[in-house]
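Q: Structure tokens for this one, please.
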Amino acid sequence: MSVVNELIKSEPDGALSFGNYELSEKTKKEDFENAGNLYKVKTFKEITKLERDGMFVYESVPGTSVHGFRATGDGVSFTVSGAEDAQLTVGVKEDTEYEIFVDGRSTGRVKSNLGGKLSISVELAGNGDVPVAIKL
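A: Here is the predicted structure, written as tokens:
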């Protein structure tokens, strides 16, 4: 998959795709409507950040591109790509344990913090598109 040149877009199935890690300068797009929510994305080579209705959803350092991002009551799933290995932080339910799957393999169970954030590392360099799933 490629970067998202329009910074954020809705997929035919309702999922979101966002982020462009090839940009040299921070670029943002605000007030993008999807399923009744307003999204804001900031992205470039150093960071990609997504907010929904002013609340944290996703952040990666360095920047990434995300395809098929879907958040449900049971967790979050998406495919991520980037030029370098990345630290991902995802907004989920606070103080809740999740099982993390990276490239189809379980990396174990992790508990989100009291702010509802969960961080994971993903090896992206030379790996192309990496599916990530965070499940209750």
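A few notes: Residues 73 and 136 are 9 Å apart (CA to CA). The chain has one domain: 8-135.
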